[in-house]
Design a protein that fits this description.
Layout lengths: L14 H34 L2 E6 L3 E3 L8 E9 L7 E8 L8 E6 L3 E5 H8 L8 E11 L6 E2 L3 E6 L12 E3 L14 E3 L6 E8 L4 E3 L1 E2 L9 E6 L2 E3 L5 E3 L4 E8 L4 E6 L3 E4 L14 E3 L4 E8 L2 E7 L6 E7 L2 E5 L5 E3 L3 E8 L7 E6 L8
Parallel strand pairs: 2-9
Antiparallel strand pairs: 1-3, 3-6, 4-5, 4-7, 7-8, 7-9, 10-11, 12-18, 13-17, 14-15, 15-16, 18-19, 20-23, 21-22, 22-27, 23-24, 23-26, 24-25, 27-28
Length: 371
C-alpha cells in the first residue's frame, strides 16, 4: 500500500502584501493594548472618585414660617481628589423607602450646601404632610465626568413642616356669629374673599340642629356692618336672622357683596374620583372626618392617572390643586391631581380655615401605610 503524501505548496507574498499584513497585526495589538489601559484607568478613577463622610448639621428641625428666610440645615461631604470636578445632587426619601421614591433638593459643584427654611419646607411637604412630623433620609449623589454615579452614606433627619398661612385684611373677612357659638363675633367662623373681589366663601361647622346666624363685616357688632336676611336668597339691612334647615353638619357658605346674595351646601361626604382610583365603584371612595385635626382623610391604592376630591359624589363641588407660595393647595379651579407612580397613598384635605385650605397627597412607604 502506498501512502499519499500531500506536500504544502510554498507561496511567497509580494512585498505589498507583507506590508499590509504587518499593519493589520500591529493595529490589532495596539487596539488590545489601548483597551486594557483604558480599563485600568477607569478602575483607578472609580476607586478614587467616591463620596464619603456626609454630615448634616442637625438631627431634627422644626420649620416655621416666621423663619423662612433663615438657614434650615447645612450639609457637607468629602469626594474625589482636590482637582476632581464633579456635580453633587442632594437626594431625599422617606425613612424606610430605601430611596425608591426620591426627590432632589438641589445640585452643586461644591462639597457643601445650605438649605433655607422656605425652600426646604417646600420640598419636605412633598414627603411629609404639612404641619406634621416625619423622618426622612438624605444622601449625596456624585457624578464624576461620564462615570457611574457614586453615593454617600445615608443620614436620617426628623422634620416638622408648616403650611404657609396667608393673612387677610379686614375688608376681606366676613364673620358668621350665631346661636351655635353664643353669638360671639370675635370667635365666629369666617368666610373670605381671597381675591378681594366681593365674593366670599368658607366652610362652617354648624353644631346644632337648627342654626341661626348673621353676617358681620367687623370684629365686633356694628349695625352698619351687620347683614340680615331679606328674603329670596338676598341679604341687606332691616331683615331677620339667617337660618339653616339641613341640620347639624359642615356647610360650604358663599356670599357676594356684588349681588347681595348668599347660599349654602351641606357636605355629606368627600371622596376621590378619577382615572387614578384603582378600585372603581358606583360611589367615590369616601374620606373620613377627624374632628380633632379638622381634616378629611383616606388611604387607598392609586394607579397612574389623575383624580379630583369632590363632595357628595357629584362634580358640583370639587377640588384639583395649584401651587401657592411653593405649597400644594386645593383649588376648585385647579388642575387635576396627577399620579405618576402607582402605590398606596394617604390623601388629606383641610378646609377649616377660609382662604387657607390645605391638602396632602403622600405615597406611603409600605402597602399598609405604616412607616
Amino acid at each position: 500500500m502506498k501512502l499519499l503524501l500531500i506536500t504544502p505548496v510554498k507561496r511567497n507574498l509580494p512585498p505589498v502584501g507583507k506590508f499590509i499584513l504587518i499593519c493589520m497585526v500591529s493595529l490589532f495589538l495596539f487596539a488590545c493594548q489601548k483597551e486594557v489601559v483604558n480599563s485600568e484607568t477607569i478602575i483607578a478613577a472609580s476607586a478614587t472618585n467616591s463620596v464619603k463622610n456626609f454630615q448634616v448639621s442637625e438631627s431634627g428641625v422644626k420649620l416655621l414660617q416666621g423663619n423662612e428666610n433663615m438657614s434650615a440645615i447645612y450639609l457637607r461631604w468629602e469626594a474625589g481628589t482636590p482637582n476632581t470636578y464633579a456635580t453633587f445632587t442632594i437626594e431625599a426619601a422617606l425613612s424606610g423607602a430605601n430611596f425608591s421614591d426620591i426627590i432632589e433638593l438641589g445640585t452643586t459643584d461644591q462639597k457643601n450646601i445650605t438649605l433655607s427654611v422656605k425652600d426646604f419646607n417646600h420640598q419636605m411637604c412633598r414627603l411629609i404632610p404639612t404641619g406634621a412630623t416625619g423622618t426622612i433620609e438624605l444622601r449625596i449623589k456624585a457624578v464624576f465626568g461620564k462615570e457611574v454615579p457614586a453615593y454617600s452614606n445615608a443620614v436620617a433627619l426628623r422634620v416638622t413642616t408648616y403650611q404657609h398661612f396667608t393673612e387677610y385684611n379686614k375688608t376681606q373677612i366676613m364673620y358668621i356669629p350665631g346661636n351655635f357659638q353664643n353669638w360671639d363675633v370675635a370667635s365666629a367662623p369666617k368666610i373670605i374673599t381671597t381675591e378681594n373681589n366681593g365674593e366670599y366663601e368658607g366652610y362652617v361647622n354648624f353644631t346644632n340642629t337648627y342654626a341661626q346666624f348673621l353676617l358681620v363685616k367687623s370684629e365686633k357688632w356694628d349695625p352698619v356692618k351687620t347683614y340680615t336676611y331679606i328674603g329670596a336668597g338676598k341679604f341687606g339691612f332691616g331683615g331677620s336672622v339667617f337660618s339653616i334647615f339641613g341640620g347639624a353638619g359642615i356647610y360650604l357658605m358663599k356670599a357676594s357683596t356684588n349681588t347681595n346674595t348668599w347660599n349654602y351646601t351641606k357636605i355629606n361626604t368627600w371622596g376621590i374620583n378619577g382615572t387614578a382610583v384603582a378600585a372603581k365603584g358606583t360611589t367615590d371612595p369616601e374620606m373620613s372626618y377627624d374632628a380633632v385635626t379638622k381634616t378629611w382623610n383616606i388611604q387607598l391604592d392609586l394607579v397612574k392617572g389623575d383624580f379630583r376630591i369632590r363632595a357628595n359624589n357629584t362634580n358640583a363641588i370639587s377640588y384639583g390643586n395649584t401651587v401657592k407660595d411653593g405649597c400644594l393647595v386645593p383649588d376648585s379651579k385647579g388642575e387635576n391631581f396627577i399620579i405618576e407612580k402607582p402605590g398606596h397613598y394617604n390623601i388629606t384635605i383641610n378646609l377649616s380655615l377660609a382662604g387657607n385650605y390645605t391638602c396632602n397627597v403622600i405615597k406611603n412607604v409600605s402597602p399598609t401605610g405604616t412607616n
